[in-house]
Each structure stands twice: as structure tokens, then as C-alpha cells.
Specification:
8 helices
Length: about 325
């Protein structure tokens, strides 16, 4: 069984670590992750999802406060591990990359070189992709540009959210990492260079990316909503307060409606777009809990008053 050091931090990375541990095919010698960070009003220090899984499996945890630290590099070398696995972490300096004699295998949730960047799953859905995939590659200094080991295509359902797509990627992602480690180390998998340029990039999701533009076609708004669900959520304004729209359904793809205007319906929250209309299935008022469209109708709208969802201006 091959020994590896695992590097990661977020929920997707934690789920992959859990699957690798369950497989019994990879020995996790140590887990590298970020230190605990303050959360909530009390600023209590809370471990990230990868650390939580690592501790539950009794894997040694190495907190990487400074990835350029020579002391960190010495500690990792002392483990005498030839190769590392990385899933969702910060950019690493060349000195860190040189710690492992056989390098670091990265799992990236896209078909590289397309959708290079921090948020490939979100952008695949926002941009209306019907297919995306997973890539394992050898990490190098240039972000997401290393030599490819394996790739696997994954379909995206028309109403699938980013959270659902991430979940669908966990099992095949872990399998690909195991196959990549064994195949790369025994020589049965040869790395190949990435060719061509990305069709689209996948930058970190910022607030400006989250703003709903009701003047756009219904299917574009729908793609934005599901690409940002369950978090961070697509944003607009209702009755002067910010709301998150978390799940929608395209009702009509064409036809003229007033953008943002609520279209009268007995039990459904339907909103007009530049072309067509959307049913809002899940919505979260500012400071409140997630509601169904019907609950929002009963609690926030009155049939006698015309209601409209407004756009948040870019700052």
C-alpha cells in the first residue's frame, strides 16, 4: 500500500479524504491543512472540514500557517513520503513542491485546461455546461497547468446544483486519485501535457458574480442560481432587503414579462425575466431561514399588492 501526505481544507476535500480512508487502498501518513479559524460572534476557533475528518480517522495533522516555511518543509520531509495528494488548497511555492520526490497529484473538478481556477464546479453550471469532469494532474508552479494523469467526464443535469454536482464527484474523484497514485508510481500511467487554452476560466466567486439580473433570459438566471447553490447563493432585493435565491425552475424560456415582477399564481412563486419566467422553489430572506416559494408567498406577499424582486447595483 502506498503512503501519501494529504493536503486540503474545504468540504469537497474532506469528503474525498473520507472516501480514501474508507477504501483501505491508500495509507494517509499525515494531513496538511490550515490552522483553526475564528467563527461566529464569539470568534471561537473552529477546525476546517479536512481537519475534522483527519482527527476522526486519527491521522496526524500538520497545520500549514505559512506554506513557504522551511520548518514546515523539514517536517514534511521527515515523514519520508514520496508523493502527496492535494484537493482544494492555496497556491504552493516551488520549495513546497520540491518536498516530495515524486511530486504532488492534484484532483481538479473540471476537464483541464478548461475551467482553470478556484471555482470550476460553480462556473460550469453558471455557464450552462451540460458536461464537465474530473482531472488528476501533477502539480507545478503555474496554477492548474501541470501534466495530466487521468480525466473522466461527468454529466450535469438541467436542474442540478453546484452542491449536488460536487456530491456526484466524490466517489469517482477518490477512485481516480487511487488509480493515479498507483499508476503513476508503477509507470502504467504516463503523464501528458495539457494542450490548448481554456474555453472559460473559473475565478473565485465574488459578490459581483452573485447578483441576479432579472433582465436576462430565465435559463441564464436559473443557471446562476443553481451554480451558486447551496452557497454562497444568488442575491437580489425584495421589499428593501437582500434575499438569497437557492433553487429555481424554468417555467417558460421565451415570452415577454416585466423583469423581477411576481406573476400571480395560487401556490407558486413565479418571477418574470427578460425572456421567460422562473419559479422560485427555495429562498432565504435576510437573517431568516430557508423557505419554500409557497411559504414565502404566504409570509411576505399579499395578493392585492403587486410585488417585485429588484436587482442589487454593482458597487
Amino acid at each position: 500500500m502506498h503512503e501519501v501526505v494529504y493536503i486540503g481544507s474545504d468540504e469537497f476535500s474532506a469528503a474525498i479524504l473520507e472516501k480514501l480512508a474508507e477504501s483501505g487502498k491508500i495509507a494517509i501518513k499525515a494531513v496538511v491543512t490550515y490552522p483553526d479559524s475564528p467563527k461566529g460572534r464569539g470568534h471561537k476557533l473552529v477546525p476546517n472540514p479536512v481537519k475534522v475528518v483527519a482527527q476522526s480517522k486519527s491521522f496526524p495533522v500538520i497545520e500549514a500557517l505559512d506554506v513557504a516555511s522551511p520548518e514546515l518543509h523539514r517536517k514534511l520531509r521527515s515523514l519520508n513520503v514520496d508523493i502527496a495528494i492535494l484537493v482544494s488548497f492555496k497556491i504552493l511555492p516551488k520549495e513546497f513542491l520540491a518536498v516530495f520526490p515524486k511530486g504532488i497529484i492534484n484532483l481538479h473538478p473540471s476537464l483541464l485546461p478548461d475551467l482553470r481556477g478556484a471555482a470550476p464546479v460553480n462556473w460550469a453550471i453558471i455557464l450552462g455546461y451540460e458536461r464537465t469532469g474530473l482531472s488528476t494532474f501533477l502539480l507545478e508552479e503555474k496554477v492548474d497547468a501541470g501534466r495530466i494523469l487521468l480525466q473522466r467526464e461527468i454529466t450535469i443535469g438541467p436542474d442540478e446544483t453546484a452542491g449536488e454536482l460536487y456530491s456526484k464527484m466524490i466517489a469517482p474523484g477518490a477512485e481516480m486519485l487511487i488509480e493515479s497514485v498507483y499508476g503513476y508510481l508503477d509507470g502504467s500511467i504516463k503523464s501528458i501535457p495539457q494542450t490548448g487554452e481554456p474555453t472559460n476560466r473559473a475565478p473565485k466567486i465574488r459578490r459581483a458574480h452573485r447578483l441576479i439580473r432579472w433582465s436576462k433570459p430565465a435559463f441564464e438566471v436559473h443557471n446562476l442560481v443553481r451554480g451558486l447553490s447551496p452557497k454562497p447563493g444568488a442575491l437580489c432585493v425584495f421589499s428593501g432587503k437582500t434575499v438569497k435565491i437557492l433553487r429555481t425552475k424554468v417555467i417558460t424560456k421565451s415570452g415577454k414579462n416585466e423583469p423581477g415582477m411576481v406573476i400571480p399564481s395560487k401556490n407558486k412563486l413565479i418571477v418574470g425575466c427578460g425572456e421567460g419566467s422562473l419559479e422560485i422553489i427555495q429562498i432565504q430572506p435576510e437573517g431568516g431561514k430557508i423557505l419554500s416559494g409557497e411559504q414565502f408567498l404566504r409570509g411576505y406577499l399579499k395578493e392585492s399588492i403587486s410585488a417585485k424582486f429588484e436587482e442589487i447595483p454593482e458597487q
